[in-house]
Write a structure and sequence with these properties.
about 270 residues; single chain; 2-enoyl-CoA Hydratase, Chain A, domain 1; 6-stranded mixed β-sheet; 3-stranded mixed β-sheet; alpha/beta; Lyase 2-enoyl-coa Hydratase, Chain  A, domain 2
């Protein structure tokens, strides 16, 4: 038997805080004195970690947040932006592909990712929030796609693909062109944030806990179908969902749910 299982609880992160408790993994960007900017190393570690989560049997949901009242201020001006101005085109392409691979890894890992957004959520930080499956925010959250402010296109890390799908093309164009900050209230009204409250991290953890104790295989299938069906016709989507649902009907969790319903009990899901 092939066993690719990996214990995420044993992982020791180098460039952010990492913990696993009760099937929920927590990532905390932890440079609060700079509003938690990303570096070349933290990008790469996030990419590699999300890839490895495919094989983690002790994690069924992920929470990502920032320390010190801010989510993430984007790429570090001194550690990333300054070196980029001196790189060759092949070096730049390696970097931009790596940042895109971080998004691919987030979208591709089977566990739902819940972002808790407070304060500054800018540039690549806005992308990390957007690449998550669910976003809870505080009233202090200010989300900005700052790329045009530094002479770059607003299409960084999938922004032109992801944001229109969340808020619509008409709305997405304005912040991507202008780089101006979107308030939490505006983000909620547009559908960027699922909810705005006083304690987004607590809400994110509670929601992730509920997901982690639900039917993990079914959640992974749901995430997979949400990704796949972006580019499908309705006919293709219906066939893909027919196959996905038939597969889920062969899981033990489906049997457990029926047995619990029949006995008027709450189902206890095991993820198989």
């Amino acid at each position: 038997m092939i066993n690719d299982a990996w214990k995420a609880a044993d992982y020791r992160a180098e460039h952010f805080l990492w913990s696993v408790e009760d099937r929920v993994a927590s990532i905390t960007l932890n440079r609060p004195e700079r509003k938690n900017p990303l570096t070349f190393e933290s990008y790469a570690e996030l990419r590699d970690l999300f890839r490895r989560l495919t094989y983690a049997d002790d994690v069924r949901a992920v929470v990502i947040a920032g320390a010190g009242g801010n989510f993430c201020s984007g790429g570090d001006v001194h550690d990333i932006i300054a070196p980029l101005t001196k790189m060759t085109m092949p070096e730049l392409m390696r970097f931009t592909r790596m940042t895109g691979d971080t998004v691919k890894a987030m979208r591709g890992c089977p566990q739902p990712i819940v972002a808790a957004v407070e304060g500054v959520c800018a540039g690549a930080g806005a992308i990390l929030a957007m690449a998550s499956d669910v976003r809870f925010a505080s009233a202090t959250a200010k989300t900005a796609f700052l790329f045009t402010r530094v002479g770059l296109a607003g299409c960084d890390m999938g922004a032109c693909a992801l944001l229109p799908r969340l808020v619509g093309h008409g709305r997405a164009r304005e912040p991507l062109y202008s780089g101006r900050a979107m308030s939490a209230e505006e983000g909620a009204a547009w559908g960027f944030f699922n909810r705005v409250g006083d304690k987004p991290l607590d809400e994110a953890r509670a929601f992730a806990h509920d997901l982690a104790h639900g039917p993990a295989f079914a959640h992974a299938m749901t995430k997979n179908q949400l990704n796949m069906e972006w580019n499908m016709s309705l006919e293709q989507a219906l066939e893909a969902e027919a196959q996905a649902q038939a597969i889920c009907m062969r899981t033990k969790d489906f049997e457990r749910a029926y047995a619990a319903f029949a006995s008027k009990q709450k189902p206890v899901f095991e993820g198989d």
